[in-house]
Amino acid sequence: MPKQGKRFSAGLKLVDRTKRYALDEAIRLVVDTAKAKFDESIELAVRLGVDPRQADQNVRGTVVLPHGTGKSVRVLVFAKGEKEREARDAGADFAGGEDLVKKISNWLEFDKAIATPDMMGLVGRIGKLLGPRGLMPNPKVGTVTMDVAKAVKELKAGKVEFRVEKAGIVHVAIGKASFGAEKLTANAHALLTSLIKAKPAASKGNYLVSVAVSSTMGPGIRIDPLGVRALAA
Q1: Fold of 17-69+159-231
Q2: Which residues of 63-72 are buried (b: 16+ CB within 10 A; e: fewer)?
Q3: Percentage of the chain surpassing pLDDT 70?
Q4: pLDDT tens across 102-161, in order?
Q5: Residue 108 and which of 24, 31, 78, 187 are 20 to 30 A apart at CA?
Q6: Rg, the chain, Cα only
Q7: Which of helix, strand or coil describes residue 49?
């Protein structure tokens, strides 16, 4: 059996597949089962009781994870004049106006994009490039704003976006195994609290259907959704 398969099997032995764990217990277990030779990412998968095909049941939002994501985020800002200077001073990796729009036709070396509202006419020209890659600035998640400094600092600090997929599931990375259980639990709590607050009024019945946490190479560990609802109360 390949080494990766042996590690997965060893991790599987630590997990009771019939049990739904408390959040903190599940996080400790996922750290214990992350045995790859690299720093594995830790991800939450939450199935919601919504129908994403209905516009009034879409779930989308952002949350600043208190301990970040463990990833270096390259931030680009579409702005000009004083706002361009503010973006650079706040730590933006790239900032500019029409010059950047032209450059992006064959360059996408950034992870997040922010724009001031007056730049969206220009940015719209490259929407077909940015949109499919999840890079299009959007006022709903705070990336179309005049407060570019705040937006840059939040993204650098660990602000992440969540959005329900067609199957009704939200997948979000909450950090790295090296963070340890305490920091990962705090990040998970922040995300789950934001998800609960984002419950659409049109969603009836059970909203948190299932919750699971896993590492890149490890088994999924089920979390008790009743306990999650109590944590976020």
Answers
A1: Ribulose 1,5 Bisphosphate Carboxylase/Oxygenase (3.30.190)
A2: bebebbbbee
A3: 93
A4: 999 789 999 999 999 999 999 999 999 999 998 999 998 899 999 999 999 999 998 999
A5: 187
A6: 20
A7: coil
Q: Which residue ranges make up each domain of the chain?
A: 17-69+159-231, 75-156
Reading the block at residue 47, the tokens are: 């199935």
Side-chain half-sphere exposure of 43, counting CA atoms within 13 A: 16
75-156 maps to CATH 3.40.50.1000: no
The answer to whether 76 and 113 have CB atoms below 8 angstroms apart is yes
Q: What is d(CA 221, CA 59) in angstroms, rounded to the nearest whole number?
A: 23
Name, in order, each residue with C-beta under 8 angstroms of 60's C-beta and a sequence gap of 6 or more.
140, 141, 161, 162, 163, 164, 198
Average pLDDT over residues 169-185: 96
Quickly state the pLDDT bin for 233 (edges 50, 70, 90).
low
